[in-house]
UniProtKB/TrEMBL annotation, chains A, B:
It is an enzyme of class 2 (transferase). InterPro entries: Alpha/beta_knot_MTases, RsmE, RsmE_MTase_dom, tRNA_m1G_MTases_N. It catalyses: uridine(1498) in 16S rRNA + S-adenosyl-L-methionine = N(3)-methyluridine(1498) in 16S rRNA + S-adenosyl-L-homocysteine + H(+). The keyword Metal-binding does not apply. Keywords: Cytoplasm, Methyltransferase, rRNA processing, S-adenosyl-L-methionine, Transferase. One of its GO terms (molecular function) is rRNA (uridine-N3-)-methyltransferase activity. This is Ribosomal RNA small subunit methyltransferase E. It is found in: Cytoplasm. Its EC number is 2.1.1.193. It holds the Pfam family Methyltrans_RNA. It comes from Alcanivorax hongdengensis A-11-3. Belongs to the RNA methyltransferase RsmE family. One of its GO terms (cellular component) is cytoplasm. Specifically methylates the N3 position of the uracil ring of uridine 1498 (m3U1498) in 16S rRNA. Acts on the fully assembled 30S ribosomal subunit.
Length: 238, 238
């Protein structure tokens, strides 16, 4: 936790917030802060700044907050990601958020196991919690927009073109393709398939919406390894 | 497991190998192969090829192997990594290996918790097991060389210059530095610090051995996210 991320429901009055349990534990056990000491903080979807520990009573901590800096710039990359297996979804959301991605669609694919869509990890509050962890890690305050697309074809046919917006649309795909573009300022859109890859039909549908296949080495990487490697490879990180 | 990686101790005669328990389970439960069917395989530190399931008796599987292709090219990047917390070491070794890194030093740093050096995860056979998982993932057969350097200064003073070899020596470090070099063919050497970063003294010692600081965005990434992002950013992946 590199930032105390203060949420609207924690606000007590104009300038005071109550830390939640996890934040309070971190402030006391990891940072060892006492009353009067400062700590980096930010308002969710707002500015960054400094908070002062105003009072510690039992395990309840009240802080004041003063904005003193702009938030870090977002990464101008939209991510279309085949729903990963539940165990890895948590880590991938934390990673994607800490890398600065602000627009994510988790989409179905032929090779996504149907059971993945039934997992409790897909509940909105759990998805949000993982993205908050990514923000705390990267000292960022702007929560990504996350969409679920449990049906591939309707999303790709009806919504993808608008959603993907301007800029190159990159499909990382094994085979004899042009190398990955490098050092893009963004905007750009990146599609990452499931383990085993998109089917030829899915690739064709994505290419019909302006995606182009690019090669990224011959190795087969796990999605959780490929995501940061691709993002670091193709984007300028702000 | 994208490759059955056959090890010397599994060899029965000139052309036959016995699968270990995990491989046998994978062949039966995940791949659903039966006698006579082929599967991608490779000899540890040797060529790749195809194995044929020769016999399945109870849970014991014997295969024949025929080499038919060269191994994938290694990534010409040496990694000097401050020892990560035990929980993450496993994942980082799998990732580094699957990305194709062949030379790794796990080194101490002021901010590495001393207890990390006592963890059972550092036993040679467990480290090796994680790297084998990375090889299986990426369809590679060449095991990385892994060194432990539990004392920073003696390693850096006496061995680092020789170990790091030719090519640029990159220190990813927050601050106002030149941007990360891009798309290097290698050889190159990358130093990644612990959570909280190298101390100024450590940075100075590394710079005395030819390392140069480079910036990689303003965000604070976890080591396990930073590693693939940096590798994907600075290297051409073969």
């Amino acid at each position: 936790m590199n930032l105390l991320l203060l949420q609207p429901e924690q606000q007590l009055d104009e300038s005071h917030w109550r830390l939640d349990e996890r934040q309070a534990r971190h402030v006391q056990s990891v940072l060892g802060l006492t009353e009067g000491q400062p700590c980096k903080a930010g308002l969710l979807d707002g500015p960054q700044g400094t908070c002062i520990i105003e009072s510690i009573k039992n395990k309840e901590i009240t802080v004041s907050f003063k904005a003193d800096s702009q938030n870090v710039e977002p990464l101008k990359l939209s991510l279309l990601l085949a729903l990963p297996r539940p165990k890895m979804l948590k880590r991938i959301l934390i990673d994607a958020t800490s890398l600065g991605i602000k627009r994510i669609v988790l989409i179905n694919s032929w090779k996504v196991d149907k059971s993945y869509w039934q997992t409790p990890n897909l509940k909105a509050d759990l998805l949000r919690e993982k993205m908050l962890l990514g923000l705390e890690q990267a000292r960022d305050t702007q929560l990504p927009e996350l969409l679920l697309a449990p049906r591939f074809r309707p999303f790709v046919e009806d919504r993808l073109d608008h959603w993907a917006g301007d800029g190159p649309r990159i499909l990382a795909h094994p085979g004899d393709h042009a190398p990955l573009p490098r050092n893009l300022p963004g905007p750009a859109c990146l599609a990452i398939g499931p383990e085993g890859g998109w089917t030829p039909f899915e690739v064709e549908m994505l290419c019909d919406r302006g995606f182009q296949c690019h090669a990224f080495g011959r190795r087969i990487l796990r999605v959780e390894t490929a995501l940061p490697a691709l993002v670091g490879g193709m984007m300028q990180l702000p």
